[in-house]
Amino acid sequence: MSWYKIVGGFAFVVVMWMVGGAELYAQKRTVKPSGPYREYQQRMDSIYQFRIEQVYLDGHYIPATAAEAVDSLIAALGERNLERIRRLPEQRVVQGLLGSVGRWMIVRWGFEEGSRLSHHIKERYGVSFPIDIADFLLTAMYRKVQQQPIQWENIAKGIRDRRRVLLQRRLQNQHPIAVDTARAPQDTSQYR
């Protein structure tokens, strides 16, 4: 079997998968889990439920509210880092800290698997992606350090709007891959 047949077959599978996924999203249908997937989903839901009720996860205290998390974050950063933060603009601080302090929060406070803090922020502010929760808390921390009004709802709205734009761009760029088989090299191998 020649490589172009393999690539063509793979491209066909990818196109069919993308078209099916786009149609499913466009119709806003929900697929009801069945069989082993339903059992897996139920198990994951019970684990999530357990995690959001815990005060400590993996030996680390999990703040209960966003305000408590910001206070913990300020205490963890220390005065030397806070002085640096005071001299920089908000966007630069938040983007600069997302890869380090943001990732630290995601791991330590269990945003990916669920924790009482991530659940609180999802329920109260509608921010659900782990990196967005870290962005939310870093922005609030910056504003508190600068002694500005935090405006929790405005931060959340900005993050939700940015996520919506990203999703729309992603859906607009999702188009079937056209494979031109007329220009594909022909298999001239004597070992077909």
- How much of the polypeptide forms β-strand, as a percent range? under 5%
Number of discrete helical segments: 7
Biggest β-sheet strands, sense, barrel: 2 strands, antiparallel
> Rough shape?
globular
Number of individual domains:
1
Which radius of gyration do the C-alpha atoms yield? 23 Å
Strand and helix order: HHEEHHHHH
Task: Describe the model.
By secondary structure, the chain is mainly alpha-helical. It has one domain (32-182). 68% of the residues lie in helices and 2% in strands. The chain has a two-stranded antiparallel sheet with strand order 1-2. Helix 3 crosses helix 6 and helix 6 (130-145) runs antiparallel to helix 7. It starts with a helix and ends in a 20-residue tail after the last helix. The model has no long low-confidence stretch (mean pLDDT 83).
Write the layout of secondary structure elements.
Blueprint (H helix, E strand, L loop, with lengths): L2 H25 L8 H17 L3 E2 L2 E2 L4 H22 L2 H19 L7 H10 L4 H16 L6 H21 L20
Antiparallel strand pairs: 1-2
